[in-house]
Amino acid sequence: MIVMLSFIGGVLIAKALNDIDWLTTAFLGITMAPLAYAAVVPLHRIRGWVSIVGGVVFVFVVAFGFGNIQARAQLLSRSGLNKLVLGEKGKNDASVIEVRILRTGERGVLFFDPQSGDFGFLPWENVRRIDWPLTSVFQR
Q: Which domain holds residue 86?
C-alpha cells in the first residue's frame, strides 16, 4: 500500500511540475490497478487462470496506450527541430532539412517532417551531421 501511495504522490508531483499531461496521468493511475488488486484480494483468488490472463492482457493494453501517448507527445512537441545536414561521401554539395528525429539506430535515422506531415528514413551514408536544439527540461 505504501508503494501505491508513493507512486501516486510521484505522479501528482510530476503533474504539478507540468512534466506530464492529464492523459498520461490517467494511464499511470490505471496501471496501478493490478497492484491494488493484488494488495487487496485474497491470495487464492489471484492464482486463478482468469486473473493471470486478464493481468497479461491488461498490461499489453496499457503498454500500447502509454506508447501511443508518448508518440503523440513527441510528434506534437513544442521543442526545437533537429537539423540534418545531408550529402553523399566524396561530394561537396550538402542540403539541410529541419525535422523531428524519432529514433536513431545502426542503419540510419527515422524522422518526422512537421511541414509536410511525412515520416522518413535516412541511412547513415546520407547523413553528414545532426544539429540538436538545446531545450529546457520542462519544455515538451
A: 82-131
